[in-house]
Amino acid sequence: MTASIKWRGLLVLFCLVLSFFALAPSFMEESLPGWWTDTFAPIHKGLDLQGGMHLVLGVDVDKAVESRVDGIVDQLEDLLREDDIIFKRVERHAGDRMVVTVYDDEAGKQVDTLVDETFGNLEPMTLPAEGGYIQKNYRLSDDDIERTKEYAIKQALETLRNRIDQFGVSEPVLQRQTGNRILVQLPGVENPERAIDLLGKTARLEFKMVVDDVNPQAAVTDPASLPAGTELLYEKNVNRQTGAVSETPIVVESRTTLTGDYLSDAQVRIDTRFNEPYVTIDFNSVGAKRFEQITAANTGRRMAIILDDSVYSAPVIRERIAGGSAQISGSFTEQEATDLAIVLRAGSLPAPVNILENRTVGPSLGLDSINKGKTSIIIGALLVVAAMLVYYRISGLIANTALVLNLVFIMAMLSLFKATLTLPGIAGIVLTVGMAVDANVLIFERIREELRTGRPAHLAVESGYGKAFLTIIDANITTLIAAVVLFQFGTGPVQGFAVTLSIGILASLFTAIFVTRLIFDFFLARGQVKNLSI
Length: 534
Hints:
Elements: H1 2-28, H2 34-39, E1 44-45, H3 47-50, E2 52-59, H4 61-82, E3 89-93, E4 97-102, H5 105-118, E5 122-125, E6 134-140, H6 142-167, E7 173-177, E8 181-187, H7 192-200, E9 205-209, H8 216-221, E10 230-238, E11 245-253, E12 258-259, E13 263-271, E14 276-283, H9 285-297, E15 303-307, E16 310-313, E17 325-328, H10 334-346, E18 353-361, H11 363-416, E19 420-421, H12 423-436, H13 438-452, H14 457-489, H15 492-524
Parallel strand pairs: 1-19, 10-16
Antiparallel strand pairs: 2-8, 2-18, 3-4, 4-6, 5-6, 7-8, 9-12, 9-15, 10-11, 13-14, 14-17, 15-16
Helix pairs in contact: 1-11, 1-15, 4-6, 6-10, 11-12, 11-15, 12-15, 13-14, 14-15
């Protein structure tokens, strides 16, 4: 018995020491050594406690459909050239419709055959011809449109999550809502403008060839003068001496030669000549091969590097570039370069997102919630402590000791598991305080029954714990199952409640059964206790 008490005591002592190490950063982080804070993090507080940003983003799924059709247009142009089918142009019309203009019926039949064999998701449409040419009209099927929209929302969620993870926000909340909306909560964000810019940027990276034989200024004056297959964009220039920003018009081919979908990495580097940051990008194996082919075929021409329809740079291709690496420079600040690298690594959004709701929760509201939560926990704990002392006397003091340890272990597990403490989570702790002594009440009543039959104190304690054990386990397991279901299927606030409730149940079982039994055995084993104060 003595050896058993010793080992059980060492286990409880170990739990207490571990709890101290886990909780110390939450109360004295600045005075602790680096290894301590690197190993044990402070308890994460949710948006409702520490303040932050609450955003509702709307995904423009119609743009995703348009991008899908644009991709098919590019593929079809390549296939038409490979099969030597003569055509005038291929273009997208009205969002989900694509038009192939040819010169005769024979070419039209060839286009129909090619589309039917290659793009089963396109449905032919019958529309009148224009200008004497034959137009073959196709549209995406309704099923494909719905799949594209669904994919756009799912991909937007994943991309936003990747960006936030690299942005360094702890315990963010990203949830899909009805109506193509995404809920984003960022606790503790200190720079809301930067976060909004990071989340809202589509980050569509494209490489297009510059058309040098077209006068950009003439295109600015008369956009109709642009030749077919070209478009007018603007390159941002920053004067290194004055910092003044200007825009230079530049004409590029409408067709994208390469996109950022083939990127494998993006990192910030420093230009030692001008002491300015730039972003290096690396392509995957497919992108590297494609990039090498493009540079080999366009040596001597300028290639525009475009992000979200803005030209960052348009360097001249001096020679074939092997290895799949390039760089984006544009007089960035270090933060701008870092954010650009983040969005490129995380990937581009499949469709633009619009900020439908933007609320900033101030820390004063969170502080008030924390203070009220602390008050509720203290009042609840004091009432329970008083009731146990009055009704069970010294045994009640043992139960109250377990209750204090229960609170310590709950907070320590929140820190160790990197769980987020929210206002509903505090409600879960308050509920746990009330439930924590239930197990001891069952045990103490069983012990009382055994003492009434005249059994000795140590046998009454052993029998009381043995008879109440299964009842306690059954009651707590059913509650734990309910908490797990709430966590699995609930949203943010409900999950916060479920987390603290689950942790509280586990801590209560340990303290109510294991710790209190250890205290009873410690005193009874010494033989000095003849009667129990219960």
